[in-house]
Amino acid sequence: MPARNGLKALSDTLLIHSRAQAGLADYCKVRGVPYDRVMQENGLDGLSAPMTLGDHISLRAHARSLEVCAAYSGDETFALNWSKDMGPGRDDTVSLALRYAPDFLTALQTTAKFICIVLDLSVVRARHATGSASIAFALSPEIVCSDQMIDRTTSKTFLRLQQVSSEGVRLSKVALARSRPVSTHAHEAFFGVPVRFEAEVNCLRYEVDNARQPNPMRDDDLFAALCELNRRRLDDRRRAEDFISRVCDAIAERVADPGLTASTVAAALAISVRALQRRLQERGQTFQGLHDAVRYRMAVDFLGHTSMSVSEIAYRLGFSATGNFSRAARRWFGCPPSMWRLDQRARSVATDVRGIDSLRVEPT
């Protein structure tokens, strides 16, 4: 159903490089997943090819498409197995830079410094102490369908850091901010160490004997050139990054609070309420409008892609009563949330039936 009150215009504030899709069609074919149907269901069927270095797509749509692929395949580790079976995918300027980095520590720091060129994250940091090094990241709390996206991003990062890891660098711990799968075997087999699930952030922690041991593929000139290119691209992303996306992230982190106010979000952004309101007004937005938009986007994913009850979703979105959520849903969707959920499921079933019919061969 179409979005109302201009909410859809704000649906793509979180982005990922379009090359994240590269190889997915081939893997879907191997796994028997109807790739074209998944892309159509998630608004990615218009993705152009070839994918250039500057193209970005909706992170929310990409993350959701991976969850749908996992459901079609019946594999809760679909994205992890994608990395295992087909590797990390096409290189970008960030992965190329770390490949030619002087040493492991520099590669780790380079990843943390520039990864936001290719993927919008709410948290990313690299740390180093005697005998250990780590990289940690977190997706925006607005990304509801995150399990497969977390698996894919963490596994890709691990595989690319492996390229510059010497014998003195050993992965020691993995923490994932995804739900715990029924079986943890696939994750532990892939990473080779125990994996902690439902963590606050995703983290790869390494034991390092010498973080400065030279990388065999080291190329100082190429590394410097790639870092300069990445610095320019990061500056371009920061200039293009709308203030609205920062406000939406701050709202999403606190969306379960029924008493969330503009002053709370302003404090989180370290600005005054007046400054927040002025900057939003300059962009034709209001705090209440963005609060409503964040709730709407999260409601779409909670209703369409989880089995949570309507009352639980209402609680997660900060509504003080289920009736308040139902009234908001009527405004967003034109019907109660339970009816919208049933309609989406019916549409999905109808799509599946049409897909099966298209495969039938008429007898001759």
Descriptors:
five-stranded mixed β-sheet; H-NOX domain; single chain; 364 residues; alpha+beta; two-stranded antiparallel ribbon; globular
Provide a short characterization of the protein structure.
With 364 residues, the protein is an alpha+beta fold. 52% of the residues lie in helices and 10% in strands.
* Secondary-structure element series: EHHEHHHHEEHEHEEHHHHHHHH
Taken from the alpha-carbon principal axes, the silhouette is globular
Give me the CATH fold name of the largest domain. H-NOX domain
Q: What is Rg?
A: 22 Å
What is the mean predicted local confidence, pLDDT? 89
Quaternary structure of the protein: single chain
CA distance, first residue to last residue: 41 Å
Structural domains: how many = 2
CATH C-level of the largest domain? Alpha Beta
| Sequence stretches where pLDDT stays below 50 over 5 or more residues | 1-6, 358-364
Main β sheet profile: 5 strands, mixed
Task: Describe the protein.
Helix content is 52%, strand content 10%. It has a 5-stranded mixed sheet with strand order 3-4-7-5-6. The chain has a two-stranded antiparallel sheet with strand order 1-2. It folds into 2 domains: 7-238, H-NOX domain; 243-353, Orthogonal Bundle (Arc Repressor Mutant, subunit A). By secondary structure, the chain is of the alpha+beta class. The protein has helices spanning 24-31, 35-41, 59-73, 78-86, 93-99, 104-114, 147-162, 185-191, 220-240, 243-253, 262-268, 273-282, 287-305, 310-316, 322-333, 337-359; strands at residues 15-17, 56-58, 123-129, 132-138, 169-175, 195-196, 202-208. Mean pLDDT is 89; it is low at 1-6 and 358-364. Helix 5 (93-99) packs antiparallel against helix 6. The two termini are 41 Å apart. The chain is globular. Helix 8 (185-191) links the parallel strand 5 and strand 6 (195-196). It is built from 16 helices and 7 strands.
